[in-house]
Amino acid sequence: MTSPIAAYDLGRVPYREALEVQRRAVTARASDACGDAIYFVEHDPVLTVGRAGRAESLRASDGELRARGVDIVPVERGGDVTYHGPGQVVAYPILALSGLPSGRDLHRYLRDLEEVLIRAIAAYGLRATRRPPYTGVWVGDRKVAAIGVAVRRWITFHGFALNVDPDLGHFDWIHPCGIRHLGVGSLRTLLGEAPPRREVLARLRESFAGVWDRPVVEAPWNSPVQETLLA
Amino acid sequence: MPVTIVVPQLGESVVEGTVGKWLKKEGEPIAKDEPIVEIITDKINIELPAPAAGTLGKITVPEGTVAQVGQQLGVILQAGESLSAGAQAAPAGGPQPGARPPAPGQPPAPAREPAPARAGTAVAEAPSGDDQRVSPAVRKLLRENSLDLSSIRGSGMGGRVTREDVLNHIEAGRIAASAGAGAPAPQAAPGSAPGRAPAAAPPKPLKPIPAPAFAPPGSREEVVQPLTNVRKKIAENMLRSRHSAAHCSTWDEVDMTALVEMRARLKERIKTTYGVNLTYMPFIMKAVVRALREFPILNASMTETEVHYKKFYNIGVAVHRDQGLIVPVVHDADRKTLLQLAQEIEDLGHRARADKLTLNDIQGGTFTITNAGMFGATASTPIINYPEVGVLGVHLIQERPVVRDHRIVIRNMMTLVLSFDHRLVDGTPAVQFLHRVKELLEDAESWLLDSI
C-alpha cells in the first residue's frame, strides 16, 4: 500500500462548513471518486458534542457561550465535549481503513493517531505519552491533543486537535472529554513559544507517513477537489 | 433468507460497544452497505453498513444498550419475507446473543480483512439457490426471457447473478442460435455442440466471453449521408495543412496551481460584476500574445519566397460544434484587457455554436489555441491552422505528483503542446516559445498587472 495520501491545508474554516466538507469527502472516498486525504483546518471557537456527550461536561452556561458567539454542534464522532478554537491544528483524516496497517481494527487506528501526535511532538524535544484508558496525548499531566473518530462505510472521518497555541482559558468552558482531574496544555506553554503552523503541519505529515508507511504529500487546497467538495 | 445485523469485530481489544443511534426505523427499506446503526466504542463512532438490501424487520437491541461483538442487533428482511420467519431464522444463522469475546491470543490477521466481512455481512447469508438472492431488475429480466436462474453463472459477490450476467447469457444464446443457422460462432464455449441452446447446457466452468453489444453478426449496414459543406471545408483545410506544412510538435508541463487559485478567487466576482465566465483561456491568450512578441517567427506565415511577419496578434480559438470544428478569431488580442478577452471569447463561442459567426469572425488569424482539455484530453498534437505556422494545444488541468525541492508534492498540472511548421520555425525558437508561455502561466501575477 504505497498510494499517497494528499494533505490539504484549508486554513481557518467555520466548524459546520468543515463538517460538511468532511461528510462529502467521506461519500466521495467511499465511491472511490477521490483518494485518501488529510484535511488540516483551524476553527473559530466552537464546542462539539460527541455521541458520548454528557450535559455535566459543559461548565459554561448556554447564555455565556451565546454571548461569546460560541456555537455548540452535536456531531457523530465518538467522545464527549471538545473545544476547538484558533491556535489549534485540527486534522481530519478521510481514509479507507482497508489501506491502513490497522485495517478495520479501530482501537489500533486510535493508537496510531496517538502515535502520529507523539512522534510529531517528539520533534520538539517533548516526551508525549498516552494515558490509558483515556484516548488522547499528554505531556506530563497536561493534555495537548484530543482525539475523536467516526467511521462510515469503513471510511474514517473526524480526527484530532493538537493544541499549538490556543487560548487555554477557553477550555474552562468544558471538562475536556469529561476528564476532570487532568489539565490542558499547549506546545506554546510547554516550549515557551509557539512553533509556526506550517512547521507543525510538516511534522505531522512526516509522522503520518512514518506511522502508516505511506507517502503523505502536500496538496494545494484550490483544486478540482475543492470545487467538488464545496459545490 | 433474513439477514441478521451483528456487531462485527472492531479490533482485538474491542469486545463490546454501545448501540448509538438507529439510522433506520423498523419497516424502512435499506440498500446494501447503507449506514444502518451506530456502534460507539471508546472515542469511536462507527456506522455499520447494512449487510444486505431489504427492509429493517426488527431492532433487537435498542439505542443506548451495550452489545457484545458478535451479538445480533436486528434483522433485515428481504422481499416477501415476514418477521416471524426472520425472527426464527436469525438465531439459527447468527451467533447467540450475548458475549463472544475474541479468544485470547487470537492472531491479529483474521481480525483485519476477512473478519469484518464474515462478521459484518455474512452471518445469515447462507448459500441459497432461490431467486431471492438477485435484484428485482434481474428477476424481471429472467421472467421476460423465460430463463431459469440456475442456468446462469453469476459473476457478482458470492456468485450472485447480476443483470450483466443475464444479458451476457441472452447474447450468448443468440449467437449460438445463429451459429446453428450457419454463421460463425466465435463465442461458443469449447465443448458445446453447435446449435444447442446454452439455456439447456450444463453450467460451464468459465464465464462466457461477452458478446459485442453493437450489432448482431450478419448486419453489414452502412448509413450514407452527403457531406455537409462545413465538413467538406474542414477536410480540405486539414489536408491542405498536413500536405503543406512540415508538422512537428513539442510539449511541456505547466504548473497551473497559482493560476487556478487566482481564477478561483476572481471568477465569482467577475461573474457577478460583469456577467462573464472567467475561464483559463483569456490568461492563456495573454501569455501567448506576450510570448509571440518575443518570438515573432511564430506569428508569421510564409510563401515560397518570403516570410511575412505579422505585427498584429489575431488569435484563433478552436470551438467544438455539432456541425463541426470552427476557429473564430479574437482580433488584436494584444490590445484587449483580460476581461475584454474573456467576454469576446465567450461571445465568439456562443455565436459559433448558434451558427451566427460573420466572415470577419473567422478570418485573419495569425496563431491558434485549441483546448482539447475541455473534453478531458491530457495531451494531443493539433494540426496547424494553415497558413499560420503555430498552434498551441491546451489540455486538462489535473492534480499530479511532481517533485519540488526534492519532495513529491501534488500540483495542478497541464500539458501544453505546440505544433509548428518546421519549414519556417526551427526547433530552438519553438521550444523557447513554449517554455516562455509556460513561465508566463506559472507566474501570471507578476505580469498580468502591467498588461491588464
Automatic annotation (TrEMBL), chain A:
The active site is at 177 (acyl-thioester intermediate). Gene3D superfamilies: Bira Bifunctional Protein, Domain 2. Keywords: Acyltransferase, Cytoplasm, Transferase. It catalyses: octanoyl-[ACP] + L-lysyl-[protein] = N(6)-octanoyl-L-lysyl-[protein] + holo-[ACP] + H(+). PROSITE patterns: BPL_LPL_CATALYTIC, LIPB. The record marks 143 as: Lowers pKa of active site Cys. Residues 32-216 form the BPL/LPL catalytic domain. InterPro entries: aa-tRNA-synth_II/BPL/LPL, BPL_LPL_catalytic, Octanoyltransferase, Octanoyltransferase_CS. It is an enzyme of class 2 (transferase). GO terms for molecular function: lipoyl(octanoyl) transferase activity. It is found in: Cytoplasm. Pathway: Protein modification; protein lipoylation via endogenous pathway; protein N(6)-(lipoyl)lysine from octanoyl-[acyl-carrier-protein]: step 1/2. GO terms for cellular component: cytoplasm. Substrate binds at residues 77-84, 146-148, 159-161. SUPFAM superfamilies: Class II aaRS and biotin synthetases (SSF55681). CDD domains: LipB. It holds the Pfam family LplA-B_cat. Its EC number is 2.3.1.181. GO terms for biological process: protein lipoylation. NCBIfam families: lipB, PRK14345.1. PANTHER family: LIPOYLTRANSFERASE 2, MITOCHONDRIAL-RELATED, OCTANOYLTRANSFERASE. In the reaction, the free carboxyl group of octanoic acid is attached via an amide linkage to the epsilon-amino group of a specific lysine residue of lipoyl domains of lipoate-dependent enzymes. Belongs to the LipB family. Catalyzes the transfer of endogenously produced octanoic acid from octanoyl-acyl-carrier-protein onto the lipoyl domains of lipoate-dependent enzymes. Lipoyl-ACP can also act as a substrate although octanoyl-ACP is likely to be the physiological substrate. This is Octanoyltransferase. It comes from Eiseniibacteriota bacterium. The gene is lipB.
